[in-house]
Amino acid sequence: MPCVNLSTNVSLDGVDTAPIFSEVIKAVASIIGRAETHVMVLLKGSIPISFNDNEEPAAFGEVISMGGINSEVKKKLISTIGSILETKLSISKSRFFLKVFDTTAMRFQSKM
């Protein structure tokens, strides 16, 4: 089950977050190759974030998945989720950082 955890310093008060959830779920499911019903998304707003020595709109995200992650998938996730945040919350892609982690990668490394 992929889990997407997004935090932003943008206030979500009064923001219709349903389209954000919907677009992120669809994108992650499609890119990683999982069913939409297995994608979890957490979205937190008004989180204190300073990036490049200022507090302009910014976001940090993590995608954790059991498999389905490679370098091309990482690039697509970063670009697509960044575009969603830019469109829906006016967060510039240059002020968005996404950490992508495949839990199965550690399983192969630990057998060495």
TrEMBL record:
One of its GO terms (cellular component) is extracellular space. It comes from the Eukaryota. Pfam families: MIF. SUPFAM superfamilies: Tautomerase/MIF (SSF55331). GO terms for molecular function: phenylpyruvate tautomerase activity. Belongs to the MIF family. This is Macrophage migration inhibitory factor. It comes from Protea cynaroides. The lineage of its organism: Eukaryota, Viridiplantae, Streptophyta, Embryophyta, Tracheophyta.
